[in-house]
Every structure is written in structure tokens, then in C-alpha cells.
Amino acid sequence: MTSIQERHRYILDRLEREGFVRVQDLVDELGVTGATIRNDFRTLESQHLLYRNHGSASPVKQKVIDLPVQEKSRICAAEKKRIALAAIDLLEEDDSIVMASGSTIESMAINLRPQGILNVVTPSIRVGVYVSEKDNVEVMMLGGHIIKKSLSVRDTYSLEGLRNVHCSKLFVGCDGFDLETGLTTTFEEEARITRSMMSAATKIILMADSSKYGKVAFGKICDFSEIDVFITDEGLPDNIQRRIEAEGVKVIKV
Questions:
Q1: Whose CB among 43, 59, 175, 198 lies 3.0–4.6 Å from 217's, allowing a Cys bridge?
Q2: Topology (CATH) of 4-60
């Protein structure tokens, strides 16, 4: 395979199948130099056909559209419920947890069946209402200005409240994730409060359906190496799962 067009087609086909491709793999498979592959990457990136990373390439990142949480809850609803039920299975008796905002976290709140007395800290009004309707749940609502689309709070009052608690687990979602950027959310302020929630918990559990893979939003939450458990659906490609697990993350597919 010597023509530029053939190499470009091969690279794009690999990206479509696997979600990423490494320079060294293409060197070995195509019998060309690393400089040639990197030049191919630059050309394809200039045509908005891929995104270059250090030593690899990934598909063009899709931008996240900010939607009201009521609309988000209807997207991949079945997958979100399975993810939520798997998250509930991780709860222990008399647990203390932080539940972030978002439609997948809300599904967890709706289906919650606590063992013993469960303490819940949350910035989400909807999550707070759902869990407060359960028996044997104590709820601490973080304060601050209400964001209408997410029906949650994220300002200095919320950050101050998080300084006074520590929980065993944080259950958190995101608007997009990939292997290079990590976890992202629409607004920087939301990413900031999420990082504070991470500091208030021992174990970080990400709940995100596979449709969010390859999407990127403005506010970076963290890298995958900072996550302990990732619960997702069967739509996540196996090769992406292996790369996430290589970061020390336990992946649960439901």
C-alpha cells in the first residue's frame, strides 16, 4: 500500500472501527516511516477528518450541546437505568455518598433502595427530591444559585458546603469523555464543583453511557486515571475499554 489515498482510507477505516489509531501500529502495518504517518495525520486533520494526539489519532471530537436535564433523561434512557442499577449495587449498608447532577444520576436516585441509613450530599435539586422520598435517607443539599437547565447549584456556597463533609463514594456523570481529554462537562463552573466533590469522596464512580464517547465539552473535570470505577453500557468498544482499564480504572459494562 503505497499511495497516499490508500493510506488515508486505511487510517480512516481503522478510526471508524476502533475509535483510535497509533502511529507505531500504522508504521508496522503499512511498512512506512513514522514521519509519513504523522504527515498523513496532519493532512487528514487539516481536512477535519481526525484529531491528532501524542503518538496517535482519534475521530473528530463532537461538541456537546447543552440541553435541559428533562430532555437529557429521554436520551439512552434504558442504558441509563441499567447503569443506575449497577451503581446502586455498589452501595454498602449505612453508606455516605455524594451524588452529582445529571440525568444518569437522577435515574440512580429514582431507583435507589438504601441499605440501613444512607447519607446523601448533592448539588442537584431533582436528585435531592427523589432521594428524600425514600425511607432511611438523610439528604444534605448544597446551596447556591440555581442553574435552570440542570436544576442544580454550582457556586461558592456549594464549594463551602463540600469542605465540611467526606463520603465513601462520589457518583458522577459527564457530558463527554475520550481517552485524550478525559471527562468534560458543558461549563467550567460545573467542572470545578465536580472536582471539589471528588475531593470530598474516597472512591470516584463515573456513570456515563457510551454515546458520550468521543464528545468534548468546555469544562474539563479530570483524566481517566483519577476515576476508580466506570459504569457504562455494552456500546463501549472493547479496545476503548482496554485502554481505560490500562489507566487503572475498573470498567463495568451493563
A1: 175
A2: Arc Repressor Mutant, subunit A (1.10.10)
